[in-house]
Amino acid sequence: MRAADADRPIGLFDSGVGGLTVLRELRRQLPAESTIYLGDEARMPYGPREPAEVVGFTREAMRWFAGRDCKLVVIACNTATSVALEAVRDENVFPVIGVVRPGAAAALTATSRRAVGVLATALTVRSGAYIRALRDLDPLVDVAQQPCPKLVPLVEAGKAGSPEALAAVREYVGPLLTEGGVVRPVVDTVLLGCTHYPLLRREIERVAGRDVRVVDSATTTALAVREVLASHRLTRAGGTAVHEVFATGPAERFREIARAIFKEDPPDVRETRLP
């Protein structure tokens, strides 16, 4: 491995702004690493789409990152991870990391009764990716899934914190707490199975209550990136990190949503097109 390889950037791919939650944690844990973020705003949301369509979009994104000489790519989108990770991982020379398995590991660390509820997009739920990942790690875990079709559009519309968002969260979290079990709450851990959902964490924690832990994949995904970089001798030793953000939709819209969510301006957002 050439020393210059470590200076290449890390790519992060999401259907929109949600993956910025992973980017923020990655930058916190690995401040020396340069990053390139791609949000496919033009075709968001991915959740209602067919698997083959999302696999095609993800393949296009991987070719886009390959053209920018990335040393590793994070699919910071649960929907794309759930249906496309295995396919694109075998097709690329650079390591590709998803967010499903790190999220499952975070949930199993948090749960005390092996009772996990998963909030996710419709396609992620249909794929069964979280059930497989959780039971691969712990065959005895009880898993309940809840598709949440309203949440990503609410986040992308800048409505996190609104009464509308709280009502939608009540609609989706309520069944995880009350249905299918004798003990209340039925689950003791709620896993946010979409990188947009941490932007609604306040509402989710409010509805879930104090006895339920709410976890997401950002921290554990960043840890997985650290491990892969170390094992491949690709960790950047120092220097000035460069961060680039691209969107397939209008750059100003992406910037406004990111600003509203994170209360700060993202790096300069540039528009791009996928092949």
CATH architecture tag of the largest domain:
3-Layer(aba) Sandwich
- Strand residues, percent: 15-25%
SSE arrangement, N to C: EHEHEHEHEHHEHHEHEHEHE
Query: How many E strands?
Result: 10
Question: At the first level of CATH, what is the class of the largest domain?
Answer: Alpha Beta
Helix tally equals 11
Overview of the molecule:
- The chain has eleven helices and ten strands.
- With 275 residues, the chain is an alpha/beta fold.
- It folds into two domains: 3-98 and 219-271, Rossmann fold (3-Layer(aba) Sandwich); 100-217, Rossmann fold (3-Layer(aba) Sandwich), CATH 3.40.50.1860.
- A six-stranded parallel sheet has the order 4-3-1-2-9-10, sandwiched between helices. A four-stranded parallel sheet has the order 6-5-7-8, sandwiched between helices.
- Helix 2 crosses helix 3 and helix 4 packs across helix 10.
- The chain is globular.
- The model has no long low-confidence stretch (mean pLDDT 93).
Could you write a compact summary of the structure shown?
By secondary structure, this protein is of the alpha/beta class.
Question: Which structural traits does this protein have?
Answer:
Rossmann fold, 11 helices, six-stranded parallel sheet, four-stranded parallel sheet, alpha/beta
Topology summary:
Layout: E1 10-14, H1 20-29, E2 35-39, H2 51-66, E3 72-75, H3 78-91, E4 96-97, H4 100-110, E5 115-120, H5 122-127, H6 129-137, E6 142-147, H7 151-156, H8 163-178, E7 189-193, H9 201-208, E8 213-215, H10 218-231, E9 243-247, H11 251-262, E10 269-271
Helix pairs in contact: 1-10, 2-3, 4-6, 4-10, 8-9
